[in-house]
UniProtKB/TrEMBL annotation:
InterPro entries: Cytosol_ACT (IPR040170), HOTDOG_ACOT (IPR033120), HotDog_dom_sf (IPR029069), Thioestr_dom (IPR006683). Belongs to the acyl coenzyme A hydrolase family. PROSITE patterns: HOTDOG_ACOT. It comes from the Bacteria. This is Acyl-CoA thioesterase. Residues 5-117 form the HotDog ACOT-type domain. Pfam families: 4HBT. The lineage of its organism: Bacteria, Pseudomonadati, Pseudomonadota, Alphaproteobacteria, Sphingomonadales. Keywords: Hydrolase.
Length: 128
């Protein structure tokens, strides 16, 4: 991967020692959580209000995340329905002090826009 990526990450984070599994890599659940956070930010902005994750349509672990990696999570709206939206997520690890960039996982998360009673609402109808 090129180090000149023009995109801006939604989230950047470095995993800590408590995020390591017995193989010396980052727990899959840790990266899934970071992906959900970034997707939620993008979905909430698009829906102009509260959202909830309702499905992970697809997720693929491509390469392990290592302790010293700087993780960039890219999230963008892929499609919008009446009450839901699909957010495409890509996670890239900067390694070797930024000399290498490695795509480590990607996925497609579905969110639903919520009203004040936590029921689905139209995405293009902002919550109060």
């Amino acid at each position: 991967m090129t180090t000149n990526d023009p995109r801006q990450p939604t989230l950047r984070i470095t995993p800590g020692p408590s995020d390591i599994n017995s193989n010396g890599h980052i727990f899959g659940g840790w990266v899934l959580s970071q992906m959900d956070i970034a997707a939620g930010i993008v979905a909430s902005r698009r829906a102009k209000g509260a959202v909830a994750t309702v499905a992970i349509e697809r997720m693929e672990f491509i390469a392990p995340i290592e302790l010293r990696d700087l993780i960039s999570v890219y999230a963008e709206v892929e499609r919008v329905g009446r009450t839901s939206m699909a957010i495409r997520i890509e996670v890239v690890a900067d390694r070797d002090r930024g000399d290498r960039r490695i795509k480590v996982t990607e996925g497609l998360f579905t969110f639903v826009a919520l009203d004040e009673q936590h029921r689905p609402r139209a995405v293009d109808q902002p919550s109060a």
